[in-house]
Here is the input.
Amino acid sequence: MNATMEQRLRGELDQFRQGGVYKRLMHLDSPQAPRVTVEGRGEVIILSSNNYLGLSNEPSVVQAGKDALERFGAGTASVRFICGTFTAHRELESELAELVGTESSLSYASCWNANEGLFATLAGPDDIVISDRLNHASIIDAMRLAKAIGKCETAIYEHSDLDDLKAKLAATQDKRTRYVVTDGVFSMEGDIAKLADIVQLARQYDATVVLDDSHATGVLGATGRGTAEHLGVLGEVDIITSTLGKALGGAAGGFTASSETVTDYLTQRARPQLFSNALPCTVAGSALGAVRFLREHPERVTTLHENAAYFRDQLLARGFKPLAGDTPIIPVILGETAKAIEMSNLLLDEGVFVTGFGFPVVPKGEARVRCQISAGHTRDDMDQALEAFVKVGTRLKLI
Here is the structure.
């Protein structure tokens, strides 16, 4: 390795440590669940997981993965268009499309891959992608890639600012296709896109709506069908990307859902689909088990909503100021990154695993601890976590 590069990287890491912003990766010694074992510390309450429905260790979901492993083997050993398409993929994609309200869907190794392949495949030099400023990094990088290879132009509208979006749509009437892309739930803020209004604007200006629903699939709506169900526009979103790695079992994988024409075109042309091995069948099997569990147990979604509302209300009652919202993502803003990391470390000492986020994940001055609630959390879990928040918050003079 180049010695200069090695020295530079070590110097920057030392600065991270001295500034209190160095993030050490913790490892779990047990399955993802409301309470986990972390590095031999014993059991802690986890408030940092995307396991919103508590399905990653649900027996029927685990068994579905085992069954697929036994039936289809350890790996696909091929890309989809050669010999890597299995029955497990077809069954999963059919049920995912039904879940999110589209004709068809196509699975990927991750939602990052699904986003990466979307604009670089569908867009052309006469098109433009217009993105919410706070969209996920995978969307930002997908836009950068598409622009860099000359596929399209890009533009940003201010976060959830419909007037700004309308102005940008009005100013780009000469474009062949205008893609409006938004997260359904913004992962660092916990707020929900104004999807119904975006859909209405898109129809007015003949634009195509793209929704990354990764933090909403299985989470929002009465039956967990996502942001579109929550806001009454199920079946009206043109293209949806989402993940299998959060509420739907949490293993891995992602998908794009749209018309059969769009998913067939992506099958023929999307490079992440053409040149990466297909999703392992055991992952497809467990994800399918999660989709079926969700359909059969809508009360799990109700529990999630009730738990999130309780925890947010109780933080407020104890003097904290979490960002307002209706999702299981509950950020508590602290300001500087070092403070967020310190609070995270102190909470872990009190038996609560919650992650501190700072720059560059969030803007400077907006560092936070981000709580994520699960349907699997009991009232005792949440009350114990709240006690720890009060103890640490008092010590840090936050309340």
In short: The mean pLDDT is 95. The chain is about 45% helix and 15% strand. The longest helix spans residues 299-317. The chain has two domains: 20-49+298-395, 59-296.
